[in-house]
Amino acid sequence: MLTAVSCAHRDLAPGDRLAAWQRALSRTFVDVEVRVAHDRPWTGELTAERLGALQIATEDFGPGTVLRGARTAAADPRGHILVRRQLTGTALLLQDGRTAELHPGRLAFHDARRPFRIVLPERQRARVFMVPRALLRLEERQLSALTATAVDGADGGAAGLLLPLLDGLADEVSRSDPGRREQLARTVVEILATVGLERIGGQPESALWERITASVRARLGEPGLAPQDIADQHAISLRYLHRLFQLQGTTMGAWVRARRLEAAHEELAGPGAAHRPIAAVAARWGFTSPSHFSRAFRDTYGMSPAQWRRAAGTGRGG
């Protein structure tokens, strides 16, 4: 559901604007206090989209300051993680003794359980993702190290690949049908977790990558195994799946082919291989064509499967 909140000069009387804007931000995100300089003009516009547990909002506001104090945080039970992606203008995000200076293209996390301050020296525009902390699957110590640290896609690494994808997914949400939106939301959360983990020096794709590769290994014998099958199994988009393999310098097709060949290579050198037809070994590991298997095996290991079996001492020739 898409909801819109507006607080512009033309909408409300001057005396009511600030209170209305504070209520809008608190209702959309978490309870906050808003401060503005009364001798400077300001406006605020807000749209928010809920996708199950995930919320994606676009905020156009400034100049001003948004505060969440210790007392407010203690009284408000919402413990979400907010992720601010700066679109235009600048912002300073302060939390846990750190300050993230946000320019267009930068992103930073902040934790609703603890006080934070967002200083907006000018009118600016930002996209804010609000995620239940459990969905990010980051430990509390990792979240504490992550807050108010700027992530810049220009620095390379996973962020350089994933932040443009994040923007595309966020734009795609409003154009997608309800069934598709749920899948997009899960992909957005996976990207945010990956980017956050990389920022604090972890292996960004490690948890998801391990789950994906373990499931692929378990299905190597399925000849028709396709990337879409794996993407659906892990509730991520096909595009994100391809990105994860790209981060490893490969494709899913190449990775699966290499693992199948490794498994067949190991089986042909093992006990009992002398009495097992090579075509049966190929089929066991997902190769539907024995001739294709033999060519791929020779290209990889420099000898045919039969030659390898003899060299490994299993004693049977073709």
Describe the structure.
This protein is an alpha+beta fold and 318 residues long. Among the domains are: 155 residues, Jelly Rolls (Sandwich); 59 residues, Arc Repressor Mutant, subunit A, CATH 1.10.10. Strand 3 and strand 4 form a beta hairpin. Helix 5 packs antiparallel against helix 6 and helix 8 crosses helix 9. The longest helix is centred in the middle third of the chain and has 22 residues. The N and C termini lie far apart (63 Å).
Extract low-pLDDT stretches: 1-9, 314-318
Percent range of helical residues: 40-55%
**Roughly how many Å apart are the termini?**
63 Å
**Which class of the domain at 2-156 in CATH terms?**
Mainly Beta
Biggest sheet details:
7 strands, antiparallel
Outline, from the CA principal axes?
Answer: elongated
Which superfamily, in CATH terms, is the homologous superfamily of the domain at 2-156? Answer: Jelly Rolls
The number of helical segments is 13
* Secondary-structure-derived class: alpha+beta
CATH structural architecture of the domain at 2-156: Sandwich
Major β-sheet strand ordering: 1-3-4-11-6-9-12
